[in-house]
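## Example pair
The file below holds two records. Each record gives the amino-acid sequence first, followed by its structure token line.
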Amino acid sequence: MVGYTAVVEALSLEGNMSLGALAYTMGSWSARTLEKHGTEEQKAFYLPMIATGEAAFSLCVSEEKTGSNVAAMQTSVRLGEDNRGYLIKGKKSWVINAPNTDYFIVIAKHQGLGEDVKYSDPERQFHQDKRKTGSMSAFIVPKKAPGVTVGQLKPFIGLRGLQVSELILDDVPIPLDYLIGKTGDGFGIAMEAVSMERHVMGAVLLPLLKKLIGL
């Protein structure tokens, strides 16, 4: 954690917060999620491409109407009619680097699940009551998949180097093996990513603060 935070701080030198923010988008939000929760096949395929810059990832959690209340998200996932894949439908907001990314990690809520999901981790079990309407899972969604549309860019006062937009998912079909972790792990995966962001965001801001006070 300390080494990674130092790298993000170095990339944010001279007030270039956009570069630092993009680094944690690819690092703590994407690569770390795949490294920790992905299958061996997913890690072998995607992580080398992230490391070499051949593929970019973006995390999709927030939604316009639910804000920071992840448990209230409306993006849904269901099995296809042949039970050989998933269909994801919804809209995600504030997706960093969406126009330039190749793959999205999408958190979506299963229809009709949630009450029967049990966790060995007490903290995850604590959050069970907050999402009785359905459990969540994390999925890899290729940008080129049918039904994926990147919306208009969102104007920012700062962080002009970031391109942030909506992601529209219209019954996007994905294979079963694009699931990250287990069914119902999505809420925990999202919270882990947010927790990492809280650590490294300070490193993004630190060079600018030093510059402002003349250090």
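Second record, same layout:
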Amino acid sequence: MALRCWPSYLRRHDASVAALALFFISHAFAFSPEILGRAGSPQLTRRIVPVRVPSRPFPSRLPSEEEDKLSSYGDSSGSTARGIVSSLTAIYTSLLPAAPQSIPAGSAPSTPSDLMRSIKDDYVLRNYLWTGDVELGCFTENCIFTDPTLSFEGRDTFVSNVQKIQPALKLLMVDMKRDCDSILLDISLNDKEGYVETRWNMVGTFANVPWRPKIDVIGRTKFWYKGGGEEGGYQIYFYDEKWEVGAAVALLQLITPGPG
């Protein structure tokens, strides 16, 4: 019954819809604190706690007019998108893959400038917005990750999320090296307040889907870091991602026919 409301090009391609749904559901499940905290997932449960504001104080200043227009996790306008993501998580519980292998983290960068260079490489060399391939040593074990549709805590959880999403991406794309990119538009270091900020463009085409939907989202991320103490090294403790488009608009790109 629900499919009658879908565009006709979606109803004609059941297999592609299923693959696209797998990507969307796996993304939703991987990042949902409600599902991750359920009984039966002990390896994940012990790493999840309610989302909280990091203990380090943030600058006491009002956001600029430009920043105020960005969509973020706390926006009421994104509640519908967050609700969709949350509701789809239950579907994925019966499709849980085997427990992922842990990946050892390297050493933390020794200076904020080194941290910024590593973040730059995550975009330019590792295409991390799609691959999730980052230098784990740059993040604290209990780092908080947020974007306009989700929020969770834990470096190990991030690794688990990435390993769950990759199989769906491989089904949807012909060649991940060709079909998607993490374009770094700008990067800067604010050593006084303690963050690295990036502006980026996440672009990609699900070429294995008949209507070839194109993802094209511009956003900004602040990597709040701390360090320089007795243990040395600088690590990110709060990953705060915002988009220059509403969350619902971004998610609608999944069912919108792409060019060509």
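Notes on the second record: Confidence is low (pLDDT under 50) at residues 1-6, 25-53, 55-63, 89-94. The chain has eleven helices and six strands.
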